Amino acid sequence: MQWRNSSSRYGLVSIVLHWSVALVVFGLFALGYWMVGLDYYSSWYQTAPDLHKSVGLVLFAVMLGRVLWRGFSPPPASLPNHGRVTRLASRLGHGFLYFGLFVLMVAGYLISTADGRGIEVFGLFEVPATITSIPNQEDIAGLVHEYLAWALVVFAGVHGLAALKHHFVDRDRTLMRMFGR
């Protein structure tokens, strides 16, 4: 399998980035959903948010790399059987997923740094708090983070259902291309 995308299929780097980001996003969603219900006396009360923040910041770096890779190795062209509406929906949907993930991660950063403390990333280094003066920063960013996380997970589910529709109903190669076939 080739590393870069070709005009007809995705390359190994794009495939690994796609599925890795999908797994991490759903994992972070599950972790976030679980950790908000923890009480103060839980042994995970501090550990879960620290893990969530660290993985979120690594995901941010991976997504930056993904955007750069997309510029270096553009995705394959739409399939010939995809009409204008399908191509537009695909472009808008992917744009929402990319943009939404970045907004979600920035909101998470703003929640975590609202008190002026940086974020430790797996105890290896600290990402400093640079923006701390927004009124009600933690509350506003928290609402954006919560609602956007739900919207993205639901939309990612719709994205997956659309891929299955292409595979089983339209019987085209949309889904198989993201598996490298």
What would you say about this model in short?
The protein has 181 residues and is mainly alpha-helical. It has five helices and two strands. Strands 1-2 form a two-stranded antiparallel sheet.
Structural summary, described in words:
The protein is mainly alpha-helical and 181 residues long. It has one domain: Fumarate Reductase Cytochrome B subunit, CATH 1.20.950. It is 64% helix and 3% strand. Strands 1-2 form a two-stranded antiparallel sheet. α1 crosses α4, α2 runs antiparallel to α3 and α3 packs antiparallel against α4.
Radius of gyration, taken over Cα atoms and rounded to an integer in Å: 18 Å
Summed up, the helix count is 5
Low-confidence stretches: none
Mean pLDDT: 95
CATH C-level class = Mainly Alpha
Mind summarizing the main beta sheet?
2 strands, antiparallel
- What global shape is seen? elongated
Instruction: Please identify, by name, the CATH architecture.
Output: Up-down Bundle
Q: Strands across the major sheet, in which order?
A: 1-2
The name CATH uses for the topology is: Fumarate Reductase Cytochrome B subunit
The residue fraction in helices comes out at 55-70%
Distance between the termini: 9 Å
**How many domains in all?**
1
Q: Structural class of the secondary structure composition?
A: mainly alpha
How many beta-strand segments?
2
Strand % is under 5%
Report the order of strands and helices.
HHHEEHH
